[in-house]
Amino acid sequence: MSGIKTLGQFIIEKQADFSYAKGELSRLLRDIGIAAKIVNREVNKAGLVDILGDAGTVNIQGEGQKKLDVFANTQFIAALTSGGECCIVATEEEDDFVPIDSPVSKNAKYIVCIDPLDGSSNIDVNVAVGTIFSIYRRKSMEGLATLADVLQKGTEQVAAGYVIYGSSTMLVYTTGKGVNGFTLDPSIGEFCLSHPNMKVPKDGSIYSINEGNYVHFPMGVKKYIKYAQVHDEASNRPYTSRYIGSMVADIHRNLIKGGIYIYPTTASSPNGKLRLLYECNPMAFIVEQAGGTASDGFRRILEIEPVELHQRSSIFIGSEKMVKMAEEMMATYAVSDSNTKIA
Ligand code: AHG
Ligand code: MN
Ligand code: MN
């Protein structure tokens, strides 16, 4: 085993860095890792077992749920319930937050916000999907935890991470002291440290956006796309366009190679599509911890005050220089948007 460091070993080694509740946060991360392995097992078997396709149900956001969305949601809630460290789960797949009321959770201090399966549209076609999670400490001191405990700004996160079920399966997380990535070794069933101290390059040459929506984008985004496509050797343009359609996979690639991922407001989604609590905030925390930037086009994602559980936000995230340039264009052309009625 020399040279291998498992996720469990790493968490215990690093728990001295936590300023509070050392063993509890470690156990919570362990519980998430266990559920991720179970979801990974089903994702890997998809096609052989009856787990592909629609569940025939719709979540509160009007999106059809896939069987794997429902399966992943059940697994994460079950792991967090039996783990005993989590008092509330807020998940994409449930209308309301889920209070965890089990005998082992009586003194649970943590809130978990989760997108159990990200990139649902890719499930049926063997393309990478993911899980995104965000962990907060409960604010209220007594009684049952409430919605106010869930609606915390991204700056209050104590940990965040994602799992990517791709050509290999990885778990990447931060507790606010850098970002580390672990690859699942199927032969021993353990996540092993493979990407220590991940850093996103300050600049990059990949842009990731669903350009099919171009006509509905704000003027600043249209201008940024045109900027990305101009020939300029000094700045390595034209950039390369890469869009998988799984936020986790697109951001994971850009985190390693450098790049920008944008999901802006559109005419049909005036507040953006992605959800603040379990998509934007955790990815923003991770990317900032890796030296990158995350903005809604005008302000830092992590400073947005949430007012509702399934709140949406636009997002511009990745290499610092690229996000800054996109923000400049958003600021410059904001006026023309307010003068233009988008059809
Ligand atoms: P989810 O599957 O959890 O609903 O998330 C899908 C998200 C995100 O992962 C992805 O980048 C984006 O939606 C894709 O949306 P478009 O199909 O509109 O590009
Ligand atoms: Mn998602
Ligand atoms: Mn999802």
UniProtKB/TrEMBL annotation:
GO terms for molecular function: fructose 1,6-bisphosphate 1-phosphatase activity; magnesium ion binding. Keywords: Carbohydrate metabolism, Cytoplasm, Hydrolase, Magnesium, Metal-binding. Substrate binds at residues 118-121, 210, 243, 273. Residues 200-330 form the Fructose-1-6-bisphosphatase class 1 C-terminal domain. It catalyses: beta-D-fructose 1,6-bisphosphate + H2O = beta-D-fructose 6-phosphate + phosphate. It is an enzyme of class 3 (hydrolase). Pathway: Carbohydrate biosynthesis; Calvin cycle. Mg(2+) 1 binds at residues 92, 115, 117. Residues 5-196 form the Fructose-1-6-bisphosphatase class I N-terminal domain. One of its GO terms (biological process) is fructose metabolic process. Pfam families: FBPase, FBPase_C. The keyword Transmembrane helix does not apply. It comes from the Bacteria. Binds 2 magnesium ions per subunit. Mg(2+) 2 binds at residues 115, 118, 279. One of its GO terms (cellular component) is cytosol. Signal peptide: none annotated. Its EC number is 3.1.3.11. Its cofactor is Mg(2+). It is found in: Cytoplasm. Belongs to the FBPase class 1 family. Homotetramer. This is Fructose-1,6-bisphosphatase class 1. It comes from Pedobacter cryoconitis. The lineage of its organism: Bacteria, Pseudomonadati, Bacteroidota, Sphingobacteriia, Sphingobacteriales.
